[in-house]
Amino acid sequence: MEQVLDRFLRYSKVYTTSDPISESFPSTGRQLVFADQLAKELHDIGLAEIICDQFGYVTATLPSNQNKKVPVVGLISHMDTSPDFSGEKVNPQLVKNYQGQKIILDTELNVVLSPDDFPELLKYVGQDLITTDGKTLLGADDKAGIAEIITAMDFLIRHPEIKHGKIRICFTPDEEVGRGTQHFDVQKFGADFAYTMDGGEIGELECENFNAAGAKITVKGRSVHPGSAKNTMINSMLVANQVIQALPTDQRPEHTEGNEGFFHLTSFEGDVSLTKIEYIIRDHDLAKFEAKKNLMKEICGLINLRYGQGTVSLEMHDQYYNMKEKLEPVKYIVDLAEQAMKDVGVTPIIKAIRGGTDGAQLSWKGLPCPNIFAGGHNFHGPYEFVPVLSLQKAVEVIVRIAELVAKQ
Fold first, then answer.
1. Domain end: 320, 347, 367, which one?
2. Rounded CA gap, 151 and 11, in Å?
3. Which one of the listed residues 80, 148, 198, 283 is annotated catalytic?
4. How would DSSP label each residue in 105-145?
5. Which of 80, 102, 234, 326 is buried deepest, with most CB atoms within 10 A?
6. pLDDT tens across 327-364, in order?
7. Catalytic site includes residue 80
8. What does residue 259 show for φ and ψ, rounded to 5 degrees?
9. Model's pTM, two decimal places?
């Protein structure tokens, strides 16, 4: 527990926020700095074949200690933190022996982590928690996963009596901006299957995620003097609002849960003459996903009929797909993770991700890759926290997976 805690506290302080606007890869140079630090640490604990390439991918190998051939397992986490909230000057706080009280994160800003707002806190009464100081996110997404993987590898190196096959690890950049696997070479990585350590609360095991698309809509208006605007002006902002209102209001993120998909307005910028809006479109069900995209096209088409062709232009592209289709034929790798959790005293919570991970894209690239808990809650904001015991249990799950694979 002390090792994984120490690693996470160190990693969380490293500024690695990605940038969705940047056209470089990785999107920020600070991720390369962290990649170099991790590569050195992997060398220090004794891993082999350590590479930090020009794209910022850090890969390494724990060689097999078996005299028989067993499947090669991959373990993957991402180095960047979300640009949705500040990840600079992270100052993690350790709350010892939490007893269900409100936690004052920042007195001046009145940022309070309370079980009234976050009842899941009460699951961890009696445990130590790591929180933010109320000014930044924490970065457990996904530096908890990195700390867990490295600690597990360190443990296996120091305990050669534990039998395991070859294990490949990779730390990726830019997952938070959807580019984490852009330059990931599945064949070179050389694993038969892998797990991303990138889930939420303890026990989460995710083998299903959203199908995802992004849409950019540009509305061209006609700006004239408002005093003589009758039957002449076309206010692009109001036309853009017609697009928004035409989409079903009950299919917005704030009204959906479970396997329900949504249209999420992420950006609105404009004036009378030109407005640009952006959406993300999500659904677990492929048929419903395609229907959502078609609805977006139909609405834009109808508005062009009303105001003239070219008033509204739509750019839409798929981002990733549901990993379920690729994991069902190899369900035994999900069963392996489930058994490993049970063996170390963790109750599996098998669920669909209301989002996506590197694992979704890797599964479609040919590397089946379910998602295992890293232990954190309330990612991407100042209320983020992670129980220390969850970090430890994730390490134990990794070690147990290695043992179970070696027995095959």
1. 320
2. 13
3. 80
4. EETTTTEEE-TTT-GGGGGGTTS-EEE--SSS---HHHHHH
5. 80
6. 999 999 999 999 999 999 999 999 888 877 788 899 99
7. yes
8. -95, 10
9. 0.88
